[in-house]
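Me: I hope this is not a bother. Any chance you could explain this protein sequence and its structure tokens? It all follows right here:
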Amino acid sequence: MTYDFNANIDLLEQYIDGTVNDEERKLVEQLLNNNAELREAYEYMNMAVASVKLSALHRQVGNIAAAYKTGKNSSTATQGQPAKIRSIGFYAMRVAAVLAVVLASYTAIQYATITPDKLYTSAFEAYNLSATRSASKGTDIEQSYKMGNWNAVLSAISNESGQKEKFLGGVSALYLDKFDVAADYFNQVIDANKTLTEKPYTQESEFYLALALIKLQNYDAAKSIIHKITANPDHTYYNQVKKISTIKTALLSFKK
């Protein structure tokens, strides 16, 4: 079956309004599970609907869907110049932002209150080394990590250290607010695994790298990783990354 974005947006609007039948509801839920772009559209539309409900203007949801389709397919010229083709996220954000300003909406509240620190804290999850499989006491780096001696972990890492040690170094750097150091270690782990069949600590590094990038205000790079993780329901940190969402990261990028 050919994927039709516009048709699915129309169906998504009906799904949000609660006017779909059981068969259509199952279809929408299947599409949301399998298509990251449609999931993002769903999040944006829900945000806008929340704004609409605050002022009893629910009928404007149809306009939001139309804005999505315009942003997806617009290719006409304006004043003799080729029109810029904007992404779905751009138009959705513009619609939600207008409603937010006019209605003092949920979106406006999120925009006014969200910060890199809040987003980071909401998603951060302590990495518990004791939960990993190990019959021995572990290396000095592992022991230092278990004791929370983050500086000792960083001091013990060398160029010859493996993926596990560098990953632990990255997490230790996060605890020390050394986010650039953390990002560097996580990238080293990911790069080292690119040519390997087994990719130890890649998924862990992707998740914590996204958090480090948020603190570094590198939102475009963070959104790219978030998209990658949310496109893979089997990713170890799939559910945790939902607490971040590209929408909140996009809001931060507007404030930068």
Q: What stands out?
A: The chain has two domains: 5-113, 118-245. The first helix runs from residue 5 to 17.
